[in-house]
Amino acid sequence: GNSVTQMEGPVTLSEEAFLTINCTYTATGYPSLFWYVQYPGEGLQLLLKATKADDKGSNKGFEATYRKETTSFHLEKGSVQVSDSAVYFCARRVDSSYKLIFGSGTRLLVRP
Amino acid sequence: DTEVTQTPKHLVMGMTNKKSLKCEQHMGHRAMYWYKQKAKKPPELMFVYSYEKLSINESVPSRFSPECPNSSLLNLHLHALQPEDSALYLCASSLSWRTGSTDTQYFGPGTRLTVL
Protein backbone atom coordinates (compact mmCIF):
# COMPACT_ATOMS: atom_id res chain seq x y z
CA GLY A 1 0.00 0.00 0.00
CA ASN A 2 0.87 3.66 0.07
CA SER A 3 1.46 5.16 3.50
CA VAL A 4 3.78 7.27 5.61
CA THR A 5 4.41 6.46 9.26
CA GLN A 6 5.93 8.90 11.71
CA MET A 7 6.92 8.47 15.30
CA GLU A 8 4.33 9.46 17.86
CA GLY A 9 4.79 12.79 19.56
CA PRO A 10 5.14 14.97 21.35
CA VAL A 11 8.91 14.98 21.41
CA THR A 12 10.25 17.18 24.19
CA LEU A 13 13.91 18.21 24.15
CA SER A 14 16.15 20.71 25.85
CA GLU A 15 17.80 23.40 23.77
CA GLU A 16 20.96 22.20 21.95
CA ALA A 17 19.88 18.54 22.15
CA PHE A 18 20.09 16.21 19.15
CA LEU A 19 16.86 15.59 17.29
CA THR A 20 15.67 12.57 15.36
CA ILE A 21 12.13 12.19 14.05
CA ASN A 22 11.58 8.85 12.39
CA CYS A 23 9.67 8.49 9.14
CA THR A 24 9.13 5.34 7.10
CA TYR A 25 7.10 4.85 3.98
CA THR A 26 5.58 2.11 1.89
CA ALA A 27 5.43 2.43 -1.88
CA THR A 28 5.62 0.39 -5.02
CA GLY A 29 7.96 2.85 -6.70
CA TYR A 30 10.53 5.42 -5.71
CA PRO A 31 8.60 8.36 -4.36
CA SER A 32 9.83 11.87 -3.85
CA LEU A 33 10.03 12.49 -0.10
CA PHE A 34 9.44 15.70 1.81
CA TRP A 35 9.55 17.17 5.28
CA TYR A 36 7.17 20.04 5.97
CA VAL A 37 7.09 22.12 9.16
CA GLN A 38 4.06 23.86 10.62
CA TYR A 39 4.68 26.53 13.25
CA PRO A 40 1.83 27.33 15.65
CA GLY A 41 -1.04 29.10 13.90
CA GLU A 42 0.61 28.93 10.47
CA GLY A 43 0.49 26.96 7.24
CA LEU A 44 2.96 24.33 6.07
CA GLN A 45 6.46 25.30 4.98
CA LEU A 46 8.67 23.02 2.94
CA LEU A 47 11.69 22.17 5.08
CA LEU A 48 13.58 19.83 2.75
CA LYS A 49 13.10 17.18 0.10
CA ALA A 50 14.82 14.31 -1.69
CA THR A 51 13.82 12.88 -5.03
CA LYS A 52 15.89 9.70 -5.34
CA ALA A 53 17.68 7.08 -3.28
CA ASP A 54 20.70 8.25 -1.28
CA ASP A 55 19.80 11.91 -1.82
CA LYS A 56 20.27 14.05 1.27
CA GLY A 57 17.98 17.01 1.77
CA SER A 58 19.15 19.77 4.09
CA ASN A 59 17.94 23.17 5.26
CA LYS A 60 18.33 25.34 8.39
CA GLY A 61 20.51 22.69 10.05
CA PHE A 62 17.99 19.91 9.43
CA GLU A 63 18.94 16.89 7.33
CA ALA A 64 17.23 13.77 6.02
CA THR A 65 18.63 11.01 3.81
CA TYR A 66 16.51 8.95 1.42
CA ARG A 67 17.21 5.33 2.42
CA LYS A 68 15.75 2.90 -0.09
CA GLU A 69 16.97 -0.19 1.80
CA THR A 70 15.09 0.74 4.96
CA THR A 71 12.34 2.82 3.22
CA SER A 72 13.09 5.63 5.64
CA PHE A 73 13.58 9.39 5.58
CA HIS A 74 14.41 10.29 9.17
CA LEU A 75 14.74 13.96 10.08
CA GLU A 76 17.77 14.99 12.14
CA LYS A 77 19.22 18.16 13.61
CA GLY A 78 22.38 18.36 15.66
CA SER A 79 21.35 21.14 18.02
CA VAL A 80 17.73 22.22 18.34
CA GLN A 81 16.56 25.68 19.33
CA VAL A 82 13.40 26.86 21.07
CA SER A 83 12.33 28.35 17.73
CA ASP A 84 12.26 24.84 16.21
CA SER A 85 9.16 24.02 18.28
CA ALA A 86 6.55 23.09 15.68
CA VAL A 87 4.77 20.15 14.09
CA TYR A 88 6.80 18.24 11.50
CA PHE A 89 5.10 16.30 8.69
CA CYS A 90 6.80 13.69 6.56
CA ALA A 91 5.21 13.29 3.13
CA ARG A 92 5.65 11.37 -0.08
CA ARG A 93 4.50 11.49 -3.67
CA VAL A 94 4.78 8.73 -6.25
CA ASP A 95 4.91 9.03 -10.00
CA SER A 96 1.46 7.64 -10.54
CA SER A 97 -0.24 9.85 -7.97
CA TYR A 98 -1.12 13.50 -7.89
CA LYS A 99 -1.37 13.34 -4.12
CA LEU A 100 0.94 14.22 -1.31
CA ILE A 101 0.51 11.52 1.32
CA PHE A 102 1.28 12.90 4.76
CA GLY A 103 2.29 11.21 7.95
CA SER A 104 0.30 12.01 11.08
CA GLY A 105 2.74 14.72 12.16
CA THR A 106 5.14 14.88 15.10
CA ARG A 107 4.97 17.75 17.54
CA LEU A 108 8.36 18.97 18.77
CA LEU A 109 8.66 21.06 21.91
CA VAL A 110 12.07 22.51 22.73
CA ARG A 111 12.54 23.89 26.23
CA PRO A 112 15.10 26.58 27.10
CA ASP B 1 10.11 33.82 -4.25
CA THR B 2 8.00 30.84 -3.18
CA GLU B 3 5.08 32.71 -1.68
CA VAL B 4 1.46 31.67 -1.72
CA THR B 5 -0.87 34.21 -0.10
CA GLN B 6 -4.31 33.56 1.35
CA THR B 7 -7.07 35.86 2.55
CA PRO B 8 -8.67 36.24 4.94
CA LYS B 9 -6.49 34.90 7.72
CA HIS B 10 -9.51 34.20 9.92
CA LEU B 11 -13.19 33.85 9.03
CA VAL B 12 -16.23 33.30 11.22
CA MET B 13 -19.50 32.54 9.46
CA GLY B 14 -22.97 31.29 10.21
CA MET B 15 -24.49 28.25 8.59
CA THR B 16 -26.61 30.38 6.26
CA ASN B 17 -23.82 32.68 5.11
CA LYS B 18 -22.01 32.72 1.79
CA LYS B 19 -18.32 33.55 1.90
CA SER B 20 -15.21 33.05 -0.22
CA LEU B 21 -11.60 32.19 0.49
CA LYS B 22 -8.91 33.55 -1.82
CA CYS B 23 -5.48 32.26 -2.78
CA GLU B 24 -2.86 33.88 -4.98
CA GLN B 25 0.56 32.94 -6.31
CA HIS B 26 2.88 34.67 -8.76
CA MET B 27 5.41 31.91 -9.28
CA GLY B 28 4.05 30.88 -12.67
CA HIS B 29 2.73 27.64 -11.18
CA ARG B 30 0.03 25.93 -13.22
CA ALA B 31 -1.30 23.56 -10.56
CA MET B 32 -3.18 24.80 -7.52
CA TYR B 33 -4.70 22.88 -4.63
CA TRP B 34 -7.14 23.26 -1.75
CA TYR B 35 -6.58 21.28 1.43
CA LYS B 36 -8.55 21.03 4.66
CA GLN B 37 -6.72 20.53 7.95
CA LYS B 38 -8.47 19.66 11.18
CA ALA B 39 -6.73 20.22 14.51
CA LYS B 40 -3.82 17.85 15.18
CA LYS B 41 -4.29 16.12 11.82
CA PRO B 42 -2.39 16.25 8.53
CA PRO B 43 -3.87 18.17 5.59
CA GLU B 44 -6.46 16.41 3.44
CA LEU B 45 -6.67 17.15 -0.27
CA MET B 46 -9.96 18.63 -1.50
CA PHE B 47 -9.43 19.92 -5.07
CA VAL B 48 -6.72 20.14 -7.71
CA TYR B 49 -6.70 22.65 -10.58
CA SER B 50 -4.36 22.20 -13.50
CA TYR B 51 -4.08 24.92 -16.12
CA GLU B 52 -7.16 26.58 -14.62
CA LYS B 53 -9.32 23.49 -15.07
CA LEU B 54 -10.62 21.36 -12.23
CA SER B 55 -8.75 18.07 -12.41
CA ILE B 56 -9.55 16.43 -9.12
CA ASN B 57 -12.45 16.65 -6.70
CA GLU B 58 -11.85 14.37 -3.73
CA SER B 59 -15.58 13.74 -3.17
CA VAL B 60 -16.00 17.10 -1.48
CA PRO B 61 -19.59 18.17 -0.61
CA SER B 62 -21.15 20.67 -3.00
CA ARG B 63 -21.33 23.33 -0.28
CA PHE B 64 -17.65 23.87 -1.19
CA SER B 65 -17.29 25.31 -4.69
CA PRO B 66 -13.83 26.01 -6.11
CA GLU B 67 -13.07 28.49 -8.87
CA CYS B 68 -9.91 29.34 -10.75
CA PRO B 69 -10.43 32.70 -12.54
CA ASN B 70 -6.87 32.80 -13.92
CA SER B 71 -3.53 31.12 -13.52
CA SER B 72 -2.61 33.11 -10.41
CA LEU B 73 -5.86 32.99 -8.45
CA LEU B 74 -7.84 30.27 -6.75
CA ASN B 75 -11.07 30.80 -4.84
CA LEU B 76 -13.12 28.56 -2.60
CA HIS B 77 -16.76 29.58 -2.32
CA LEU B 78 -18.55 28.49 0.83
CA HIS B 79 -22.31 28.16 1.30
CA ALA B 80 -24.49 26.50 3.93
CA LEU B 81 -21.55 25.08 5.83
CA GLN B 82 -21.83 22.95 8.95
CA PRO B 83 -19.97 23.43 12.25
CA GLU B 84 -17.89 20.33 11.44
CA ASP B 85 -16.48 22.23 8.45
CA SER B 86 -14.54 24.42 10.88
CA ALA B 87 -10.86 23.90 10.06
CA LEU B 88 -7.74 25.45 8.60
CA TYR B 89 -8.05 25.70 4.82
CA LEU B 90 -4.74 25.62 3.02
CA CYS B 91 -3.97 26.55 -0.54
CA ALA B 92 -0.91 25.18 -2.32
CA SER B 93 0.64 25.43 -5.75
CA SER B 94 3.21 23.58 -7.81
CA LEU B 95 4.83 24.08 -11.16
CA SER B 96 2.68 21.43 -12.80
CA TRP B 97 0.39 18.55 -12.04
CA ARG B 98 1.48 15.91 -14.43
CA THR B 99 2.02 12.31 -13.45
CA GLY B 100 5.67 11.58 -13.11
CA SER B 101 6.38 15.03 -11.80
CA THR B 102 8.53 15.56 -8.75
CA ASP B 103 7.33 19.14 -8.42
CA THR B 104 7.19 20.53 -4.92
CA GLN B 105 3.96 21.87 -3.50
CA TYR B 106 4.25 25.24 -1.76
CA PHE B 107 1.64 26.09 0.83
CA GLY B 108 0.04 29.33 1.90
CA PRO B 109 -0.49 30.30 5.55
CA GLY B 110 -4.10 29.16 5.54
CA THR B 111 -7.49 30.57 6.45
CA ARG B 112 -8.82 29.52 9.83
CA LEU B 113 -12.55 29.04 9.38
CA THR B 114 -15.08 28.83 12.19
CA VAL B 115 -18.67 27.91 11.37
CA LEU B 116 -21.18 28.79 14.08
As a percent range, the share of helical residues of chain A equals under 10%
Low-confidence stretches of chain A: none
Q: Could you list the spans of chain B in which at least 5 consecutive residues all have pLDDT below 50? A: none
Oligomer: heterodimer
Helix % of chain B is under 10%
Q: Can you give a write-up of this model?
A:
The complex is a heterodimer of chains A (112) and B (116). With 112 residues, chain A is mostly beta strands. Chain A has strands at 3-6, 11-14, 19-21, 23-26, 32-38, 44-50, 56-59, 62-65, 75-77, 86-93, 101-102, 106-111. Chain A is globular. The model of chain A has no long low-confidence stretch (mean pLDDT 91). Chain B has 116 residues and is an all-beta fold. In chain B, 0% of the residues lie in helices and 55% in strands. Chain B contains no helices and eleven strands. Chain B has strands at residues 4-7, 10-13, 18-25, 31-37, 44-50, 53-57, 64-70, 73-79, 87-94, 106-107, 111-115. In chain B, strands 2, 4, 5, 6, 9, 10 and 11 form a seven-stranded mixed beta sheet that branches. The model of chain B has no long low-confidence stretch (mean pLDDT 91). The interface between A and B is medium-sized, with 23 and 25 residues.
